[in-house]
Amino acid sequence: MPLDATSNRAGLAPSVWIAHPHACPEPDDLDAALTGAGLTHPRPVLILVGGAANLSDTVAPALLKLFERIAPRLDALGAAVIDGGTAFGVMALMGRARRCTGARFPLIGIAPQGVVAIDMAKPEQPVENVGKASLDPDHTHFILVPGDGWGDESPWISAVADRLARGRGTLMLVAAGGEITRLDVMHRLRTGGRVLVLAGSGGTADRLADWRRDGVGLPDVGVDVGEAERDLVEVSDLADAPERLPALVEHALAR
Fold first, then answer.
1. In what side-by-side order are the strands of the sheet with 80-83?
2. d(Cα 188, Cα 124) in Å, to the nearest integer?
3. Most exposed among 71, 154, 223, 241, judged by the fewest C-beta atoms under 10 Å?
4. In DSSP terms, which residues pair with 80 in a beta bridge?
5. Of 42, 21, 7, 18, the residue nearest 163 (C-alpha)
6. Where does residue 242 rank: exposed (0-12), middle (13-18), buried (19+ CB within 10 A)?
7. How do the pLDDT tens digits run along the chain, 255 residues long?
8. How far is 202 from 54, CA to CA, in rounded Å?
């Protein structure tokens, strides 16, 4: 059954689903996670990955305005957003955008159990835990998956998105990011999922944009990537995104 976490700033209690320690991103476990979190109806899914602590002072405000711009489109499409769920970087910005615009789309954070500051026995009670990440209070749902390190959630993020969509549109949006973001993207490309990169946001996003546009290599990605994967990637400059992104998101998710 879903467990109530701390109330978010909209006064709603997020649903927290804690996966079995031996669960894996296979159909039965994915269905258990979605049912446990109260997410039983197929819907389009936007996957957001990127910078947590490495966003520049100019990029963060631009991303917030961008997320506020697309929030009404996500509501109109009946979509959900999946990200890493912590109170940092792009995840916190999406939570803030949802709250500030009064949007109602499910905002689902997926994180490894061993890295977040939560009492597994009493998830409704916030805890102080040095070295562990706080969950973002503006998210509506959390799925905590097995793992003690960042990156353990990457296959779950992609698999949960596809299981929730069940044939509806999906799109991964990449802004800035580092090593874990590269891992998220590679998992997505291996499943044939489409990826939209915000060039000019820094980090992994800029490296992916260079790879897509110029064929510049992607070292240290850990998997083979080639032309088939490049074709799944689209690039939009952050400066142009307020005008372009709402239509791109709608086109990708309106299936």
1. 3-4, 15-18, 141-145, 107-112, 80-83, 45-50, 170-175, 195-199, 233-237
2. 32
3. 223
4. 45
5. 42
6. middle
7. 333 333 344 445 688 899 998 899 999 999 999 998 999 999 999 999 999 877 888 999 999 999 999 999 999 999 999 999 999 999 999 999 999 999 999 999 999 999 998 755 555 555 555 568 899 999 999 999 999 999 999 999 999 999 999 999 999 999 999 999 999 999 999 999 999 999 999 999 999 999 998 876 665 544 556 778 888 999 999 999 999 999 999 999 997
8. 9
Number of domains in the chain: 1
Q: How far is CA 161 from the centre of its chain?
A: 9
Tokens 């800035």 appear where?
176
Selection from 26, 12, 53, 11 nearest residue 141 by Cα: 12
d(Cα 80, Cα 149) in Å, to the nearest integer? 25
What is the amino acid identity at position 106? Answer: P
With left for phi above 0 and alpha for psi between -120 and 50, is residue 102 left, alpha or beta?
Answer: left
**What are the counts of helices (DSSP H) followed by strands (DSSP E) for the chain?**
8, 9
Assign 3-state DSSP to the chain and report helix, strand, coil percentages, each to 5: 40, 20, 40
**In whole angstroms, what is the distance from residue 94 CA to residue 65 CA?**
10
Q: Report the CATH number that the domain containing residue 223 is assigned in CATH.
A: 3.40.50.450
Residue 218, domain extent = 3-253
